[in-house]
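Action item from last meeting closed. Structure (401 res):
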């Protein structure tokens, strides 16, 4: 097992990375549940996460224990949006890949069932999905369409009359970068209706005939997450597995709106992790006969990292408040994602530099943190696309199309 930096050692009495104490805004019950999550992560994830990442090996064996925390879709359980965000940040702080699995399954697949599933679909799938007895994926992005998938989607759905058996649909096309796609039981697939060009959503059994999935290899980020290429060739889906609540891409945007917030919280978690590791390293590592932390430029880097982290967390706390009020709009969320991901990139780069040569090996965690940040910078709307969404909002002029 590779070495790991324990952010708790030799730091007794020093302030936490949550320098402004945002966690104090949580209720007592939420703080207790957060402590329970931290204990789980410390025991079941932190000692092993680097090896999982190095080996590109997803830890399916811990899913029952993760499910036992009863954190699936926290807002559906009555928790605040702030708590839901901090859950994702805290998971990311320990292992970005596990947080990404959680986000894809719960905040996209399970939330889709809550928001758009029929009563029959909910009765059939929701409990098992919430308890991780089955796992789900969200198949939207395509090989040739990422940011422009709304207008460029090429995966098609054709309705086929079925007589007594009822109508069904035939799906044809391809999806790419589908998180959890190699092992999930079901995937929510988005396709364009051949009849009218509308966007439809389908719950697809991942073992369906005509569906081929293969793992994307050679990633430099989120190596533990199993991203997949998916090919559909006349994959038959019964009408009962069409999401009746989905009629346009605007419905899809409602889901992506929430997941974009959570990816921004991942940007906070990455910075918390980078600060944890860099500070401990600076305190413990000695050069020229004294700790690195004794050098002024090292302190300056640590303070900049902390400032970026606190500013990012403060922005996300405000987004959570707006969510509670039902008032967080697309431009505000886009600004949060773009700003936090930019600060994250700067923070992890400083952390990697501070560790010197040790910053490029995963033994000290920082290389993993540094690499995983690149994925967060890009997915759920790249930095550039989110910037242009905000630019459109503040100028009234779109630079995208």
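Sequence:
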């Amino acid at each position: 097992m590779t070495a790991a930096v324990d952010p708790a050692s030799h730091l007794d009495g020093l302030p936490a990375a949550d320098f402004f104490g945002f966690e104090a805004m949580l209720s007592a019950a939420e703080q207790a549940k957060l402590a329970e999550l931290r204990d789980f992560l410390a025991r079941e994830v932190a000692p092993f996460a680097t090896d999982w990442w190095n080996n590109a090996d997803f830890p399916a064996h811990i899913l029952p224990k993760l499910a036992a925390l009863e954190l699936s879709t926290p807002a559906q359980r009555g928790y605040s949006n702030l708590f839901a965000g901090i859950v994702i940040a805290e998971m990311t702080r320990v292992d970005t890949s596990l947080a990404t699995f959680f986000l894809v399954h719960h905040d996209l697949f399970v939330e889709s069932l809550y928001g758009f599933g029929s009563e029959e679909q909910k009765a059939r799938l929701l409990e098992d999905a919430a308890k991780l007895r089955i796992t789900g994926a969200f198949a939207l992005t395509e090989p040739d369409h990422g940011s422009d998938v709304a207008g460029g989607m090429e995966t098609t759905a054709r309705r086929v009359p079925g007589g007594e058996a009822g109508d069904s649909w035939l799906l044809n096309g391809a999806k790419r970068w589908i998180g959890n796609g190699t092992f999930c039981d079901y995937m929510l697939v988005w396709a364009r209706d051949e009849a009218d060009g509308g966007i439809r959503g389908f719950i697809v059994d991942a073992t369906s005939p005509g569906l081929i999935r293969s793992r994307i290899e050679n990633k430099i980020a989120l190596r533990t997450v199993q991203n997949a290429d998916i090919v559909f060739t006349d994959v038959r889906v019964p009408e009962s597995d069409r999401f009746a609540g989905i009629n346009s891409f605007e419905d899809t945007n409602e889901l992506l709106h929430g997941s974009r917030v959570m990816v921004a919280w991942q940007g906070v978690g990455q910075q918390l992790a980078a600060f944890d590791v860099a500070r401990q390293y600076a305190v413990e590592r000695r050069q020229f006969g004294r700790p690195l932390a004794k050098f002024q430029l090292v302190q300056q880097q640590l303070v900049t990292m902390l400032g970026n982290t606190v500013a990012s967390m403060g922005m996300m706390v405000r987004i959570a408040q707006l969510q509670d009020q039902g008032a967080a709009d697309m431009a505000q969320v886009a600004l949060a994602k773009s700003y936090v991901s930019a600060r994250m990139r700067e923070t992890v780069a400083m952390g990697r530099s501070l560790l010197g040569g040790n910053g490029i090996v995963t033994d000290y965690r920082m290389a993993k943190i540094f690499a995983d940040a690149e994925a967060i910078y890009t997915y759920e709307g790249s930095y550039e696309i989110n910037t242009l969404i905000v630019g459109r909002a503040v100028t009234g002029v779109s630079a995208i199309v």
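Note appended to the action item: The chain has twelve helices and nine strands.
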